[in-house]
Specification:
Layout: H1 6-13, E1 32-46, E2 52-67, E3 70-79, E4 82-94, E5 98-106, H2 123-126, E6 133-143, E7 146-153, E8 170-171, E9 179-195, E10 198-213, E11 219-233, E12 236-247, E13 253-258, E14 261-266, E15 268-279, E16 288-300, E17 310-321, E18 324-334, E19 354-365
């Protein structure tokens, strides 16, 4: 099969997959196995490149199973030109409050499951700090309104930074920037409260690890932290998050990759996000209509000539009817990779302009 245009591949990454989301049981129960999957189609109109016709974007297979206190979950995806694992882990419920997971799983960082409501996600996804799946072990514990998660991750899901055909955005090994992810330790805390008759989530996340230069074998620190809040009431959802990541490598850049394409990002930056969404509930023949605006930016910490700010804003609606979930999004980006930019948070001397696209994604989840 021919490879999709790069912009279309990026769109393929980012469905929130609200139907058949992977949720493990929290208590003992009868043995079960649940097989599922999805098929999605995509159309994109771009003001900075050729328009893509409506075409098949994704095939997906899921399995969730459990017996007693043990459970497992796995998902595999097929795109045009490559296929990749999404997640594959096993778990153990230690009572009603504590859970252990081992395998390729979502990294516990920031608002979960995502800091966004759109098909396109926020800037953090492309920086590897949102909806990232890596191999590791996590322990999660709930006590009243408090929720703690700690985890250790060995690196990226394939153990090779030279492999670009993947779902999660990870550090890439390139000729100019030959790095790979090594071990990381994560900690996340979230507190549930109420505010103005709505649910309020307040939390903080942090991690510390290393990346390795595959040529010199030298290791460099890799750190990140985030403060996050979410409030829900009567169909409204508001999300706020500030995150910072840092790769202590020489220079002001490092490379990332996913969907067959490596690109460069600023090696240290702040990533603030501000999102608002409203669910109208059932309307006419639809089961739900949710509209949203997701704004995020990448602000490099340094002031060298090789870096500058990147912006992304997504305005759209999701429409759900039974197994069908459709996203209609208007994506605008400034100095943003896949939206006319050379990377994220970098400056190669080209003009910094806003570019946009209209994206339509129609999915059927089984």
């Amino acid at each position: 099969m021919k490879v999709f245009p790069l912009i279309f591949l990026c769109a393929a990454a980012t469905s929130t997959d609200t139907i058949h989301a992977q949720e493990a049981p929290n208590a003992q129960g009868e043995p079960f196995i649940d097989m599922g999957g999805a098929v999605r189609f995509n159309y994109g109109w771009l003001d900075y490149g050729p328009t893509s016709r409506l075409q098949l974007e994704l095939l997906r297979a899921d399995v969730n199973a459990g017996a007693g206190t043990l459970f497992l979950s796995a998902q595999y995806r097929w795109y045009d030109g490559f296929d990749a694992v999404h997640h594959a882990y096993a778990g153990w419920n230690l009572g009603d409050a504590t859970q252990v997971r081992a395998g390729i799983q979502q990294v516990p960082f920031g608002l979960l499951p995502t800091v966004s409501q759109s098909f396109w996600f926020g800037s953090g996804y492309y920086l590897g700090i949102e909806d990232d799946y890596d191999p590791g072990v996590t322990v999660s514990h709930k006590h009243g309104d408090h929720h703690w998660t700690a985890g250790w991750f060995s690196g990226d899901e394939y153990g090779s930074a030279a492999r670009y055909d993947r779902y999660s955005f990870d550090v890439a090994q390139t000729a100019d920037l030959p790095y790979k992810e090594r071990e990381r330790v994560h900690f996340r805390y979230e507190y549930t409260s109420s505010l103005n008759e709505g649910e309020l989530l307040l939390g903080a996340s942090a991690f510390r690890g290393q990346v390795q230069n595959t040529t010199t074998r030298r290791h460099y620190d890799h750190q990140g932290a985030a403060l996050h809040a979410q409030w829900k009431r009567d169909g409204w959802t508001t999300q706020l998050q500030w995150a910072r990541y840092r790769y202590s490598v020489p220079g002001d850049r490092i490379a990332m990759s996913a969907f067959l394409a490596p690109f460069e990002i600023a090696s240290e930056a702040d990533v603030p996000s501000a999102n608002v969404a409203y669910s109208f509930g059932a309307r006419q023949w639809l089961d739900d209509i949710t509209c949203y605006n997701n704004l995020s930016m990448t602000r490099p910490s340094g002031r060298s000539q090789g870096v500058r700010e990147s912006w992304q804003n997504v305005t759209g609606c999701s429409l759900q009817k039974g197994i069908m979930l459709t996203y209609v999004d208007w994506i605008a980006g400034k100095n943003m990779w896949f939206a006319g930019g050379d990377g994220i948070g970098i400056d190669d001397g080209s003009p910094s302009r806003w570019h946009s696209r209209l994206n339509l994604n129609i999915g059927f989840y089984f």
